[in-house]
Write a structure and sequence with these properties.
With 149 residues, this protein is of the alpha/beta class. The protein is built from six helices and five strands; from the N terminus they run αββααβαβαβα.
């Protein structure tokens, strides 16, 4: 894991926080170069599809002019949901580095299953809980603020 890339993912998450979005940030990297980065935008775009990971994948694909993001890595501040995990695998991202596992054990088992290799796509190497306290603090602060509205 590269701290610089995870720090950028947190900067993106903090931007989401400022915009009243669930504070999740994602960064896609290839050969130690940042290809794209994004934060959740579900509220501002009124769509469940605007997850940080999906936006980052979309932007990286445009920049690379290819839907295959071979040899790319994804840094994210919270484990992906199953929808994002499927997109990550379909786009052929090689490694996912996550700051914090989702507290939902069902989510964890589903994404691990999605990330396994199959007859169509290679597997995704997945590491989680790499910056637990930082991510927990940001998420807890956000949801506490939401409850106090």
């Amino acid at each position: 894991m590269n701290d610089e890339f995870m720090n950028l993912a947190f900067e993106c998450a903090e931007k989401a926080f400022e915009l009243n979005e669930v504070p999740i940030g994602a960064v896609i990297v290839k050969n130690n170069m940042i290809i794209s980065y994004a934060y959740n935008q579900k509220e501002s775009n009124h769509s469940s599809l605007y997850h940080a990971e999906l936006i980052a994948i979309h932007e990286a694909s445009k920049k690379m002019n290819n839907w295959r993001l071979d040899d790319c890595d994804l840094y994210v501040t919270l484990d992906p949901c199953p929808m994002c995990a499927s997109a990550i695998k379909q786009s052929r991202i090689h490694n996912v580095y996550s700051a914090l596992s989702n507290s939902d054990l069902t989510n964890d088992s589903i994404i691990r299953k999605i990330f396994e290799s199959d007859s169509t796509n290679p597997g995704v190497l997945f590491k989680t809980n790499l910056c637990m306290e930082r991510s927990k603090k940001l998420l807890n602060t956000f949801f506490k603020k939401q409850r106090n509205k």
